[in-house]
Amino acid sequence: MQYLNRPSLTGTSVDGSPYIYPVLTPRFAISTTEQLITSVGQLAASDPSLAIQTHISENPSEVEYTKNLFSHLSKEGKPITYAGVYDHYGLLRDNTILAHAVHLEEEELELVKERRSGISHCPTSNFNLTSGVAKVGLMLDKEIKVGHPSHKAVEVPEFSPPAGWPWNRFLWRILAFNSHDHPTRVDRSQGRSYHIAH
Fold this sequence. Notes:
Layout: H1 7-10, E1 23-24, H2 34-46, E2 51-56, H3 60-69, H4 82-88, E3 96-100, H5 106-115, E4 118-120, H6 123-128, H7 136-141, E5 145-147, H8 165-177, H9 183-189
Parallel strand pairs: 1-2, 2-3, 3-4, 4-5
Helix pairs in contact: 8-9
């Protein structure tokens, strides 16, 4: 606690938000039980100021496993989405940070936008893990908040922020070349600024 009470850490950032604050972290949906994720949602509802962070859609097998694990939440024969699971438990809101978000479906992007949640995507770590690269340009076009974190466990040091930002833009350009749905829209967005997660 003495370390956390240092003035340099307990101050506020430029926008007035504290540097250190509690965050609810249900690691990701498949690592929780029904009771745990329900109680996290109840805790979140009891204090709207509590931020929430969790993983979402890092790789296709995780997405399918999540959908199967929470298939009981499907309605009218329509399968539940990964984002839909978090939304069901009240964990998608304006102070939710969703890590990775590599394989979000269009419907999920719309839901994330509607709930004003944010995405935290480190393209070099996901590239290194061969998980893929999130459609950051499309997210920005949809006015979804996107943060650029570091992911020290799997990142190549030379590609960590801020040195890695040009490399990350290169990865997003590759994604743009391979986009059949919105090739120009995804590419155009890469010139935009994005939020730096802190």
